[in-house]
Design goal:
353 residues, mainly alpha, 15 helices
């Protein structure tokens, strides 16, 4: 029979209701059983099985993840050799493998569930605490491969990039020698990911941190830092083939902080003189002005030009009348292109007047 424009209503039958109620009762019984067994300190295989079942049904139940930790801590304590007083790696490795295998399908089904990732980091850190470096490192190297697959599937997943940071830090702690090679490998990785997708904001951000970290690890000279700065500026110039891409301008803006006297000490090139800073700013301004000729409706270009003049004024300690007029003209264009931020543009206008 035709519905004549009336939306169909889903009908819940008595069978559906009974089935739902049965599922709720089963869940409540399972939950009650787990609570009782943990309260009685029954850290057995049967308790672990029930915990696994409950977490599959509700991975957001953080209390149950804590129960799982209690069980595993009990298991690890049981592996301690009476003769040496040290954990038995031969017994610990299968426990950790079992947990990682249990977590994998949960992560695929619930990739943004914090508690799964939190527990995964915990069990991996237990590997680092309890196992010889070589064995622990194998687990963390496997984790790096896993996060690589995650980012290949979704290269802009900021959760994945954040998790990668934890994994790299653990691998560095477990490294026997050159940590610089790990950081350099991460920079190379960001280069590959950026070439795959220039709009990958997470990769650009990760690159910023990795470069500064490498320079600090090497105790790089001012000349080395200046060389890296110029390489990164060139990379950003080559990437700005699409001036409407916000992520590229954020990276360029980060590089421009190098020339801001109030921020320079926290950037990748700290030893520039004011004359050098001013020269770089003028070069960037000229390049961005050239872009403006072809993209007069791109707000990011106007914003970058405003930033250039503001930074130059900080370096020189004053803003010339010509520079002020330029800023006011660019702000007028920004008010037209991005009226939702007119309050911000007004603040800058008041600042330069």
């Amino acid at each position: 029979m035709a519905s004549h424009g009336i939306p169909r209503q889903s009908v819940t039958t008595e069978v559906d209701t009974e089935q739902t109620q049965k599922q709720v009762r089963t869940y409540r019984d399972l939950e009650r059983s787990v609570h009782e067994k943990i309260a009685e300190h029954k850290y057995t295989c049967d308790t672990l099985d029930q915990v696994c079942e409950l977490l599959k049904k509700n991975p957001e139940y953080y209390t149950i993840w804590n129960y799982r930790r209690l069980i595993r801590q009990h298991d690890f304590a049981q592996t301690t050799s009476e003769s040496s007083g040290q954990p038995d790696a031969g017994e610990i490795v299968p426990i950790i493998k079992s947990d990682l295998e249990f977590l994998f399908p949960l992560l695929r089904s619930f990739p943004k569930c914090y508690w799964i990732w939190n527990y995964r980091l915990w069990i991996l850190n237990e590997a680092k605490r309890l196992l010889p470096k070589q064995l622990a490192r194998q687990f963390w190297e496997g984790e790096l491969a896993l996060v690589g697959k995650m980012l290949n599937a979704d290269s802009r997943n900021f959760h994945g990039w954040g998790y990668r940071t934890f994994v790299i830090e653990a691998l560095e702690d477990l490294a026997d020698d050159d940590k610089e090679s790990i950081t350099q490998a991460e920079i190379d990785y960001t280069t590959k990911m950026i070439k795959t997708n220039l709009s990958n904001f997470s990769a650009w951000h990760y690159r910023t941190k990795a470069i500064q970290k490498l320079l600090d690890e090497k105790n790089a000279s001012d000349q080395e830092r200046r060389h890296v700065l110029e390489q990164e500026l060139e990379l950003s110039h080559n990437a700005l083939i699409d001036p409407y891409d916000q992520s590229l301008w954020f990276y360029h803006q980060n590089l421009m902080c190098v020339f801001d006297p109030s921020l320079a000490d926290r950037t990748l090139a700290r030893g520039l003189s004011n004359s050098e800073r001013l020269r770089y700013v003028q070069e960037e301004k000229e390049l961005i002005n050239e872009m403006l000729e072809d993209y007069t409706d791109c707000k990011w270009i106007y914003q970058a030009l405003v930033d250039c003049n503001l930074i130059a004024a900080k370096i020189e300690g004053t803003m010339s009348a010509e520079s002020r007029a330029e800023v006011l003209g660019w702000l007028k264009s920004l008010n037209e292109l991005d009226p939702l931020r007119k309050g911000h543009w007004k603040d800058i206008e008041n600042q330069v007047m």
